[in-house]
Amino acid sequence: MIYAIMYGLTVGAVLYLISVGFSLTFGTMRVINFAHTITYTLGAYLLIASIRSLGVPFFWGGAVGVAVAALAGYGIERFVIRRLYGESLDYTFIATYAVFLIGVDIVKWLWGVFPKPVSDPLGKTVDILGFVFPTYRLLVILLAIVVFFGLELFMRKTMVGKIIVAALDNREGVRCLGIGVEKYFSLAFVLGSALAALGGVLYAPITAVHPYMGSHILLLCFAVVLTGGLGNLRGTFLASFALGMLISITGRYWPAGSEIVAFIAMAAVLLARPIEA
Amino acid sequence: MLQVAGIDVAYGHAKVLHDVSLDLEEGKMLFVVGRNGAGKTTLLRTIMGLLRPLKGSIYFDGGDITGLPPEQLYHRGIRYVTQDKKVFGSLTVRENIEIAAYSSGEPLSQALDKVLEIYPKMKDFLNLKAGQLSGGQRQILLIGQAMVGNPRLLLVDEPTQGLAAIVINEIARILKHLKGRLSAVVVEQNLPLVSQLADRVVVLKEGKVTQVLDDASEICNTSLLEKAL
């Protein structure tokens, strides 16, 4: 059971890193971005490519993965998403899903369809009260917590962060105060893409890296963001870990239903707290 | 100072404003009255650049501002206080004012002074989340936020709607305080308040201007205003 909890916390940490960008982009731009998890996939593949082709260590490979995926995120925002601000959600569904499919095909074209393994970069374990945990997983959980507090600080203490928070509350109100929201949206988008890529980098040694890894996690991100509240960054953090634990603990007793419970939980939350139109 | 010249505005195929014109002189307060659905909010949103007219033009200080976005209009001195009392609820009152100060380039201390000048009690709420304020306090915060920078034209949408009598008196006091200092277009259904403050009243009915009252004796006569609706 303790190991299931540990796995749940790891899944929760990765879910948080990916979902927070998803939540940010919906909260500020009112765009449901299906292309979001392509940066997660890209982060993982660029890590592998950097390690294997350039021979760099895991840390630097991860940095390359996050930086290039963030750049790709900027390209997606600049050339696709920016044209969709204020448009019907249907258009954003279609356009961003198209970007996602194109991204998956580019990954298949560049790196093939077969799963690629990545070894644990630390390869060490920690003994806590007789339970042995991989140090790497503890590091992933710790990093997610650091990102959460870092993001909280950024949003609360910097003017850019405050404007993004204000736009989450009332985008039109920000515009009527003479502030062009587009550049802040771009920043939120790039930040979200970078965090999703970081999720891909960190999850690579735990799961199989394959071209469709993004589509698999996308649905879970939906569940997290809807459970935590669209645009609610603290809610996203709590929901990520709650659903991660739920998936892991259910998987221990009912493996087939491990992910279904995340959607049951989401449905229950939506029944109790419907999304405002 | 502000001229709205024959604008038509529609939401999709539904035309809401038909050939609406109005004129506002510097330092005056123009009130727009009308029943629900008459197009009053649509008129303010169009002046603020949140909606684009199908035809007609809007001039401010002699320049054509038709279709300019709200971001640009703010920096020309136009401020919009919306009907929904939507403050930035996740931020503190101070941060709400800080954002306006940042945008207008005014030092925060000066911006805070402006807000406290119109409502000194706000000092007690500066560190409170704006979402925790009452409806009236939110309204006052939004008016205070609009005072930051160099406002020249204030667009206020139903400032007293849904508020208790005591708060309405406070808002009336603030609007009186602002009268003569800047120009304003105020949408309001509270006719006694209109008769106290208006220099001109425009009556909107089903998207059309049906009457313009300039004469002080007419404006002070609330039963005449009631009839005009």
Descriptive report:
Chain B: Keywords: Amino-acid transport, ATP-binding, Nucleotide-binding, Transport. Chain B: InterPro entries: AAA+_ATPase, ABC_transporter-like_ATP-bd, BCAA_Transport_ATP-bd_LivF, P-loop_NTPase. Chain B: It comes from Candidatus Caldatribacterium californiense. Chain B: This is ABC transporter ATP-binding protein. The complex is a heterodimer of chains A (277) and B (229). In chain A, 74% of the residues lie in helices and 3% in strands. Chain A has 10 helices and 2 strands. In chain A, strand 1 and strand 2 form a beta hairpin. In chain A, helix 9 packs across helix 10 (260-272). In chain B, helix 5 (135-147) runs parallel beside helix 6. Chain B is an alpha/beta fold and 229 residues long. In chain B, a hairpin with a 2-residue loop joins strand 9 (200-205) and strand 10 (208-213). In chain B, 36% of the residues lie in helices and 26% in strands. Chain B starts with a strand and ends with a helix. At the A-B interface, helix 6 of A face helix 2 and helix 3 of B.
Task: Give the helix/strand layout.
The complex is a heterodimer of chains A (277) and B (229).
Chain A: H1 2-29, H2 36-54, H3 58-79, H4 89-111, E1 125-128, E2 131-134, H5 135-157, H6 159-175, H7 182-203, H8 213-228, H9 233-253, H10 260-272
Antiparallel strand pairs in A: 1-2
Chain B: E1 2-11, E2 14-24, E3 29-33, H1 40-47, E4 55-60, E5 63-64, H2 70-75, E6 78-81, H3 93-104, H4 108-118, H5 135-147, E7 153-157, H6 165-178, E8 183-187, H7 191-197, E9 200-205, E10 208-213, H8 216-220, H9 222-228
Parallel strand pairs in B: 3-8, 3-9, 6-7, 7-8
Antiparallel strand pairs in B: 1-2, 1-4, 4-5, 9-10
Helix pairs in contact in B: 3-4, 3-5, 4-5, 5-6
Protein name (chain B): ABC transporter ATP-binding protein
Keywords (chain B): Amino-acid transport, ATP-binding, Nucleotide-binding, Transport
Pfam families (chain B): ABC_tran
